[in-house]
Design brief:
Blueprint: E1 5-7, E2 10-12, E3 23-25, H1 26-32, H2 38-47, E4 57-65, E5 71-80, H3 81-90, H4 96-111, H5 120-124, H6 128-146, H7 154-175
Helix pairs in contact: 1-2, 3-4, 6-7
Length: 192
C-alpha cells in the first residue's frame, strides 16, 4: 500500500508489511491519536494486549537512515486497520472518536477488492449488481478523499476516475447478454 492517507490534515504513508494491507506504525498512531510520542501508544497496547491478535498487531524490523545517512534496523510495532481501530476504542483523546470512524471507512474499503485491479477470472466471481455497488462506493470514497478542487490530490482523483470509467465500461459490456438462437422446437411449439 503506497497511497498516502489523510486524517484531519495528517498525511500518513502506511507501513508496507508485504501483504498489501494498510498497517500503521506506533509513531503513526501517536500522531493520529494526538499523543506526545509513540511510548503512549505502546503503553496503551501493553495494558490491553490480551485484546489484540496477530492479524491486528505485529513487531517488525524496519530499516531507516540515521543522521549520518547510515542504515539502521529498528524493531517497531505495527497495527492493522483493525488493530488501529481497537487502539482508537481504548484511547481517551479528543480525536479518538473521529479516528474510529475514519478507520472503519478504511476497513470497509480494504475488505472490498478494487475491481480495477482484478483479473477476468476474479471478476467473473462477482455479480454484476455487486460490481456496480462497489464501483459506486469506490467513486464516492475517491471523491471524498481526493476530490478537493485545487489540491495536489486531484491528480490521484483523475487517475481513479479513469480506472472507474474503464470498470464501468467493462460492467456495461458484461451486462449485455446475447441469447443464442435456440433453433426450431419440435412440433412447432414455443418454449415455455
Amino acid at each position: 500500500m503506497s497511497d498516502k492517507l489523510v486524517f484531519k490534515g495528517n498525511e500518513v504513508i502506511p507501513f508496507d508489511n508485504g501483504d498489501g494491507k494498510i498497517w500503521f506504525t506506533s509513531k503513526h498512531m501517536a500522531e493520529l491519536l494526538e499523543y506526545a510520542d509513540e511510548k503512549s501508544v505502546n503503553r496503551l497496547y501493553n495494558r490491553n494486549k490480551d485484546e489484540f491478535n496477530h492479524e491486528m498487531t505485529q513487531v517488525v524490523t524496519a530499516t531507516s537512515r540515521n543522521k549520518n545517512n547510515e542504515i539502521q534496523y529498528n524493531r517497531t510495532r505495527v497495527f492493522s486497520s483493525r488493530g488501529a481501530h481497537l487502539l482508537g476504542m481504548l484511547a481517551d483523546t479528543k480525536v479518538a472518536k473521529a479516528l474510529r470512524k475514519w478507520l472503519l471507512d478504511l476497513i470497509e474499503k480494504e475488505s472490498q477488492p478494487n475491481l480495477s485491479l482484478m483479473d477476468l477470472d476474479n471478476l467473473k466471481q462477482v455479480t454484476l449488481s455487486e460490481m456496480q455497488n462497489r464501483v459506486v462506493k469506490e467513486n464516492e470514497w475517491s471523491m471524498e478523499t481526493f476530490g478537493r478542487p485545487g489540491s495536489k490530490s486531484m491528480t490521484i482523483r483523475k487517475r481513479h476516475l479513469k480506472k472507474i470509467r474503464e470498470v464501468e465500461k467493462a460492467i456495461a459490456e458484461l451486462s449485455q447478454i446475447a441469447l443464442p438462437d435456440m433453433g426450431d422446437f419440435p412440433n412447432g411449439e414455443e418454449p415455455a
